[in-house]
């Protein structure tokens, strides 16, 4: 295969086939991702069951838009203000051809609510944003001076979510490509070399986006904007890392031979095991998400796994062919040649020179002191997790300001906080009165009233809470409400609505974290055992990675809550972060230990690790900085969860790059020595000797 990818004619044919296949994907696959919020409700949850049962109710095809009218100075509305609210409600309802409900004045007389039903089909087919914008426009027209009207509720939040993500894909792609380009230019110190890997990775990203959508459609998983954003970041980050490994090894081989195709073949053979190991580790870790109960995790697992497989295919097929076609001159102005350094210098068993060699030598001299210092540092960083609030309210989940969030806050100032989003209780017909009595006795319930019935024998109650949606108080009220109504004989009562959905989503997150996190650790450990053909080394690497992940979670939590001033961690952050911290963080230890095992075929483990750190220090550091930088780019998307995941993973990757890979792993290997490879023995494998200086010019 190496000869087919690097031959004079076959390299061109390889690129042609890649371009034809890429064109076919662009022509046949449809692009695009949903701009709605991620689907996080478990399919088997009580709230999901309530949602399905409500489809049999006469009003199941509509969602109320809520207009909150108040005075700018906070004063009483008065008769004129209430009349103005009624007129605004009529204009709003006229857009959707419905009759408004209200105005409903607050007890303090300072605000009024008007409700208008919006067809659910409009929200699901992408027209909701236009409808809400038109409703807001007609409300604003003719509104009395001094009054404020804010449209919120389900349609308002859906429209504001879509608006927040509008153009986000382009911003994310542009920011990611810019960051990668700048870092590649700095790394390669060439005005042309960076173009090849960047072009290959950028094309891979677009192909991955299209194929991820196809897989999502085929499996019924929704690839929303946040899922496609994370997938894009992974493709760019991992694809660039693969390119850095291959090009670094290629540069090393070019100093051994004048035939750039032979050098590329040797580099390909040397870099491929690390690239494959890295990819397999992350892909298998991502596939564990398919066992999750939350749909957004399953969608991410499938989408990101497809994306990384596409990145691998382009890195091991398209990139080598492109490098073979371009030749040695691609490295201009610092073109590596055999006369730059003798082959014997590359295989000197003495401690290598350079900053990474000196760091490795210093670690080897005092491994116990280095190890204890690093462990203490990571433990201190992990303490940042203590006392952190986990869970954000509906209005706290977006970094951008929105009219829907502002309307929710205004309504909460003058009405019971849950009035804009009541809890739904379903009960069997004939038991409504008993369920009403049970519901009104629950702490936090302000009002409970009948709100319809279905032809299937279900009656519906609307329950207003005194706490806002997705807050700790409202979720506790829902839990208590469920306990209360379940005690009514024959009711089969169920509690749903958005607050109940938040409760079920939180429980789903806890279940998924307790299931997926151990599976990720097991998968990564098994891959390490197979790759390194050892047991001791994988266990040491896993312990270091787990401690590093906890340190990154603590440090990232401190940064996002204390410095960036987010109110807490989103419930999805722990699992997202743990997945990426373990699966991606262990990559750099894989890159290092694979090279150390290769060197250990002819050197003692201590010297082999010194050489591995020296020879891979530059490329792994560059790869870590690139990956950390592209994760930070997630901050261009409006969801708080993505910003938090981006910051935490970026910090974790830097910890793995500069602490774990540079200090902890070398210290552990130095202390354990040759026993680290037990039960295998690298010396039994044939050593890869110095490359022979091949005759002939390019």
Describe this protein's structure.
The chain has helices at 2-6, 10-28, 46-53, 78-96, 120-124, 128-140, 153-165, 168-188, 195-219, 225-254, 260-287, 295-326, 343-346, 355-365, 367-382, 403-414, 432-440, 472-486, 498-532, 536-563, 573-599, 605-632, 640-672; strands at 62-71, 101-105, 111-119, 147-152, 423-428, 445-453, 458-465, 494-496. It is an alpha+beta fold. Residues 342-351 and 687-698 have low confidence and may be disordered. Helix 14 (355-365) packs across helix 22 (605-632). The chain is elongated.
List the helices and strands and how they pair.
Blueprint: H1 2-6, H2 10-28, H3 46-53, E1 62-71, H4 78-96, E2 101-105, E3 111-119, H5 120-124, H6 128-140, E4 147-152, H7 153-165, H8 168-188, H9 195-219, H10 225-254, H11 260-287, H12 295-326, H13 343-346, H14 355-365, H15 367-382, H16 403-414, E5 423-428, H17 432-440, E6 445-453, E7 458-465, H18 472-486, E8 494-496, H19 498-532, H20 536-563, H21 573-599, H22 605-632, H23 640-672
Antiparallel strand pairs: 1-3, 1-4, 2-3, 5-7, 5-8, 6-7
Helix pairs in contact: 2-12, 4-6, 6-7, 7-16, 8-10, 8-22, 9-10, 9-12, 10-11, 10-12, 10-22, 11-12, 11-19, 11-21, 14-22, 14-23, 15-20, 15-23, 18-19, 19-20, 19-21, 20-21, 20-23, 21-22, 21-23, 22-23
What portion of the residues fall into strands of 2 or more residues?
5-15%
The portion of residues assigned to helices is 55-70%
Largest sheet: 4 strands, antiparallel
**For the residues shown, what is the average pLDDT?**
86
What does the oligomeric state look like here? single chain
Described by the principal axes of the CA atoms, the overall outline is: elongated
**Secondary-structure-derived class:** alpha+beta
* Number of DSSP E strands: 8
The largest beta-sheet arranges its strands as: 2-3-1-4
How much is the radius of gyration in Å?
30 Å
Give the uncertain stretches in residue-range form. Answer: 342-351, 687-698
The N- and C-terminal alpha carbons lie at a distance of 20 Å
Q: Tally the helices.
A: 23
